[in-house]
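Thread title: Can someone regenerate the structure for this chain?

I was given the following input by a collaborator and told the matching structure tokens would be attached. They weren't. Posting the sequence so someone can regenerate them.
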Amino acid sequence: MGANELSMQLWRERELLEMLLFKLDEQQLLLAAGKARWIHLAAREIEQVLDRLRATGMARVVESDIVASEWGAAEGATLRELIALAPQETWRDLFEDHLRALTRLTGEIGQLRDANDQQLRAALRATQETIADLSGDTGEYTTTGDRARNDAARIIDTEM
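Best answer:
Regenerated them for you:
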């Protein structure tokens, strides 16, 4: 039956969303610890999970169309529309549970992604400012004893 296969696809998608949430959380911890050395690996792992999610999403669309055909819904019906047309309360409850979980996970992922994006932008901006400041004379005094720089001291935050 198509509904069973659709449910299995939704479980796979939920598991991948949880893995994505974990990887984003891992990335956030690396950023908070200032471990920029490993950020590229975390980003690669996130991309791998996203690739798997895309493939799972396509498989879910195929299974959704099969269920839509069986239940008399239009092709391309959403999960919410399938829930409304479910012939048995068991399927309705199961798909509602999937929908709630998927909605919750995508909300958490969006929040964590935005927080990580802000941290990455702040780190990039700080790095660019530091590099720009290094292009000037780095000594405090010239050979004649005059001050080489008239600007304020610089503090580099090593715990971003």
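The CA atoms of residues 5 and 104 lie 22 Å apart.
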